[in-house]
Amino acid sequence: MDPSGGRRSKLGGMAATISTLFVTKLYRARLEGAAALNRDLGGACAAIAKEDKAGRRWSRENGYKGYTSYASLDDLPTRDPAFAELKKNLDRHASAFARALHFDLNGGKLILNSMWVNVLEPGGVHTGHVHPHSVLSGTYYVSTPLGSSALKLEDPRLQFMMAAPPRTEDAPEEEQTFVYLEPRAGDVLMWESFLRHEVPPNEAKRARVSVSFNYSW
């Protein structure tokens, strides 16, 4: 091992050192008591989707096949105890991830500044995007029926790879241009908010239900 942290090896007969720099981390965990929490969240999400006319209208006007409260509601943790319980869990995981990322919060802490419901019907997609004005973003999965969409993550360097060749099919996950994750109900996934991501078409016969969120500093 090189003192700089790289790994020494023979490449084409030449001694060389390759270091891994500027790593993009993904946080993944399962919540304790997820089955009971998801029963409560499932009912709460269904009730909100039924009552939120503004959210249904926004979803329809913006081509979202299903329902999202992204543009209509900003008070989910005070609307239903299930969302308050979810927030309590997410706060702990966000703190753990912040420590793993070596964030210097200067005595402050990360604050959950938005949380919204996603009910993605069969055939629905969510096109690629990032979450500006946030530090951490993520999704908690309430219901993932067989055939549910994966989460597609994009290498944040992609826009600068103007003349780069594609990666080989057997490249390790950390070297792939796109990574597809298949979350299960009860999983929470979290990443730094600059990471571009999308949801491919939902091929399940039922809705894929999740709760997304952002943390700011």
Please, could you describe this protein's structure?
The protein is α+β, with helices and mostly antiparallel strands. It has one domain: Jelly Rolls (Sandwich), CATH 2.60.120.620. The protein is built from four helices and twelve strands, in the order βββααβααββββββββ. The chain has helices spanning about 35-50, 55-60, 75-80, 80-100; strands spanning about 5-10, 15-20, 25-30, 65-70, 110-120, 125-130, 135-145, 150-155, 180, 185-190, 195-200, 210-215. It has a six-stranded antiparallel β-sheet with strand order 3-10-7-12-5-4. The protein has a four-stranded antiparallel β-sheet with strand order 6-11-8-9, with no helix packed on it. It has a two-stranded antiparallel ribbon with strand order 1-2. Strand 1 (about 5-10) and strand 2 form a beta hairpin. Helix 1 crosses helix 4. The longest helix has 20 residues, at about 80-100. The radius of gyration is 19 Å and the shape is globular. The model has no long low-confidence stretch (mean pLDDT about 95).
